[in-house]
Structures are given as structure tokens and as C-alpha cells.
Amino acid sequence: MNSMLVVAAGGAVGSVFRYLVGIWAVRLFGTAFPWGTLAINVVGSFVIGLLAEMIARRFGGSTEMRLLLVTGLCGGFTTFSSFSLEFVGLVERGAMPLAVSYLAASVILAIGATFFGLFVGRIAF
What we know:
Structural class: mainly alpha
Low-confidence stretches: none
Helix content: over 70%
Shape: globular
Radius of gyration: 16 Å
Largest sheet: none
Order of helices and strands: HHHHH
Number of strands: 0
Strand content: under 5%
Mean pLDDT: 94
Number of domains: 1
């Protein structure tokens, strides 16, 4: 039960961060392209790579720390399910060039950010 509470606490914080980034992106860029979700997925992928490296290899972090930060915080922050829904929405609106651009950018940038997070975690600390 304690593990679920730790994950829930991290998830609550991550979800609030996701909401705030989404609002910020809409205000800054508008709604024609899902910039907020793209930013969240890329930043979240970087952070999950960084935290995975730091917790596991650098700090010998506890299971609770991993559950709080990786499973909870990053899980609550990243929005792959939102990405999927927005991609389908672009396809259904007939915006195929935007849909394909969004798909490619999300996958390539998020995976690249995960590698970059691992790299930074390995050299910086």
C-alpha cells in the first residue's frame, strides 16, 4: 500500500505540471498544433532518462525514490495517451502533413531526449 501512495503522490505532482505546461503552450503557440503535448513528451523523456540514470547508478536510490520520481512524477507528467488522441484528431481532420510531422517529431525527439538524459546523467554527476 505504501508503494501505491508514493506513486500516487508523484503522479499528482506530474499531472499538475503537465496541466500547467499545456496551458502555457496554448497561450504561447495557440491550438493549431499540439505543441504542449510534444514539449511534455520530449521533456518527460529526457527527465525519465536522467532520473533513471541518477537514481540507479549515481545515488543508489531506494525503490521508493524510483517509484516517486520515475513511475509517479514522470508517469503523471508524460502524455503518450494524449499524443495518440491528438494524432488521431489531426488525421480525422484531414491534416495529414501535420499528423505525420507530429508523429515523427514526437517519436524522434522523445527517444533522442531519453538518450540525452542518460548521457547527461552519466557525465554530469
